Amino acid sequence: MISVKNIFKNFGDLQVLKGVSCEIEKGEKIVIIGPSGSGKSTFLRCMNLLENPTYGEVWVDNDLVTPVDPYLHFDVIEASNTFKKMYAEKKAAGAAKSDGDLKHDIIMEIKEKDLLKKHEGKEYNALVKKIYNDNQLDINLARQRIGMVFQQFNLFNNLTILDNITLAPMKLKKMSKSDAEEKAFKLLDRIGLRDKADSYPQQLSGGQKQRIAIVRALAMDPEIMLFDEPTSALDPEMVGEVLDVMKELADSGMTMVVVTHEMGFAREVATRVLFMDEGKILEEAPPHEFFSNPKSQRTKDFLSKVL
Amino acid sequence: MNIDWSVKFQGFWMRFWGKGGYKDVVIGLKNTGIIAVGGLIIGIIIGTLIAIIKVIPKTNKLLSFLDKLATLYVGFFRGTPMVVQLLLGYYVLLPMLNINMDSLFAALIIFGLNSGAYVSEIMRSGILSVDPGQMEAGRALGMGYGTTMMRIIVPQAVKNILPTIGNEFISLIKETSVVSFVGAVDLYKAFRSIATANYEYMVPFLAMAIIYIVVVLIITMLVKIMEKRLRASDKR
After folding, report:
1. Do A148 and B142 touch (CB under 8 A)?
2. Do A31 and A267 meet the contact criterion of CB atoms below 8 Å apart?
3. Reported confidence tier of residue B1, pLDDT bands at 50, 70, 90
4. Of A35, A49, B34, B62, which one is least surrounded by beta carbons within 10 A?
C-alpha cells in the first residue's frame, strides 16, 4: 500500500526523522508508539506528504509521490560524475577488489558521506528524470486514497456536518449531491449521529467531532487510514466512543496506521507495533511479542512507564 | 455672534426644495453609493486575489514575480492619497491611453483599485487567522490548494474580517467626497452648489454632515446584522 523509504526530515537544524523505512501491506493495522518528540507524528504526516521529507521516498502502491532520492537508486549513483571520478581514481591506484565489489564500496561511500552534488552530469539527470516520469503520481490523487484523522479533528468550521462529509466526494469524485448525501447519511447512521447532519462543528463534543472526522475521511472510500493521535485531545470519557469506531473499522478490514498512546488499543487491534525514539524505529513486532518480550532496553523503559 | 438660524434655514430650504437642489443631492447620494459599493466589490475581488498570492507558498518563479508585483501595487495605492490617484488616473493615465471615460466610471475603478490594496492586507490577516489545520484537512482529503482556499479558508477569513471590511466600506463612502475633483457629482458637489447659490454655507454643509452620519450609521447597523448571521455557525 504505502512504502516509506529511508525518510529524513529536518526542521531547520533539528533532525526529527533519521532514516525511517516502513512497508505497509494491505489489511495491516500498524500502531506507532513512542515518547513525545520521537518523530512519530512527523513520520505519519510524511506518508501523505503533509510534511515533505528532506530525503527519502514515499511510494503509494507502485507510484512515487515524492521527488526521486538519488541515494536510493544505485544505478543513479553509478551514473553520477562523482562516482565516475572515484571509480577512475581507484582503478588507477590499482584496487585489488573485483569490479563489482569496488563499485559497491564506492556507492556505499557516496551514500554514507552524502557526496552527490548538484551537477552530476547529463546521464545522471536523465536517469533521475526517467525514474520520476515513469513512476510519479500527483499527490492530490494519492491523498484521495489515503484518509487522515487529526488530533485536533480539523472539521471545516464554516460547513455543516453534512457538507463536511459531502464536500470532497462531490468536488473530487464528481458525485451528485443526492448520492453524496445518501452516502453521508449511511456513514452517519453507522456512528449514530444522523441527527447532527445540520449542526456545525462548534456545536458538537470532542468525541462526536472525531467520529465525524473519521466518517468524513471514509466518505472518500480510502484504501488506508492514517490516525494522528486521534484520542489525545479528548476528555477521558469520550476516548472510548472514538476507539470503538476505530475498532469497528479495523474489523471491517481497513488498512490502518495509528499513532497513539492507547496501549490497550495497540494490544487489541494492531497487527504490528512500531516503537520510535529519537527519529528512528527502534523495534517492530506483533503486539503480543512486543508487549511481553521487548528487545531493546529503551523499549523496556518506555513500557514500564506507560503500562 | 448672533446667528439667525431660521433665516438661514429658510434660505437653504428654498434652494434645496423650492429650486430643486435636492435633485443634485439625490444624484450625489446615488453616485456615492455606486462608487462605494462598486469600489468595495472590485476591492474585495482584487484584495482576495492579492492576499492569496501573498500567502501561497512560493514554489515557482511566476508566483514570486506575482508576489513582487502585488507588493508594488499595494505600496503605490497605500502610499499615495486617493485624490492623487484619482487625478493621476483621470487626467494623466486615461488621456495617455487615449480612452474616453465617464468620470463616474473612472472614479469607480480607481476606488476599486485603491480599496483592493487595503482589502488585500485585511484579507491576508484574515486568512492567517484561520487555523492551519483547516488547510491540512482539506489537502489530506485530496483537495487542491486553490479549492481548499476558496471553499474553506476564505469563507472563514471573511467571517473574521467582516467588521474591518465594514470599516473599509465606511471610509470608502466618506472618501467619495473627493470625486468632484474629476467632475463627478457627489454629495459635496451637490451641497456646494446649493451653498454657493446664495453664499450661505452653514446649513448646507451641516445638512451634508448629517446625511453622511446617517448613511454611515445605517451601514454600521447592516454590517452588524450580517455579522450576526455569519456567526450562526459559532452558536453552541
Report:
1. no
2. no
3. low
4. B62
To the nearest whole Å, the CA of A294 is away from the closest chain B CA by 34
Cβ-contact B220, B33 below 8 angstroms: no
Is residue A171 less than 8 Å (CB to CB) from chain B?
A: yes
Answer whether A154 sits within 8 Å of B137, measured CB to CB: yes
pLDDT for residue B168 is more than 60? yes
Model confidence pLDDT, tens digit, residues A105-145: 899 999 888 888 888 889 999 999 999 999 999 999 999 99
Residue A154, chain B, CB below 8 Å: the answer is: yes
Q: How far apart are CA A287 and CA A297, in angstroms?
A: 17
Can you give the pTM of this predicted structure? 0.84
On whether the CB atoms of residues B114 and B73 are closer than 8 A, the answer is: no
**B156 inside 8 A of chain A by CB:** yes
Predicted-complex ipTM score: 0.89
How many C-beta atoms surround the C-beta of residue B87 within 10 A? 16
Rounded CA-CA distance A29/A11 in Å is 29
A111 Cβ neighbours under 8 A, 6+ residues apart: A71, A77
Q: What span, in angstroms and rounded, lies between the C-alpha atoms of A37 and A30?
A: 19
Angle at B213 between CA B209 and CA B215, to 5 degrees: 115
Alpha helices in B130-201 (DSSP H): 132-140, 145-148, 154-175, 187-197
Kindly list the distances between the CA atom of residue B114 and the CA atoms of A91, B40, B82, B124, B161, in Å, as whole numbers in the listed order. 70, 9, 7, 16, 18
Q: What is the DSSP letter of A202?
A: G
Give A152→chain B minimum CA distance, Å. Answer: 8
Q: How many angstroms separate the CA of residue A65 from the nearest CA in chain B?
A: 13
* Chain A, nearest residue to B143 by Cα: A140
Distance CA A38, CA B12 (A): 80
Q: Nearest to residue A87, comparing CAs of A69, A113, A110, A70?
A: A110
Q: Chain A partners of B152 at a C-beta cutoff of 8 Å?
A: 156, 158-159
CA–CA dist B134, B151 (Å, integer): 11
**In chain B, which residues have their Cβ closer than 8 Å to the Cβ of A142?**
142
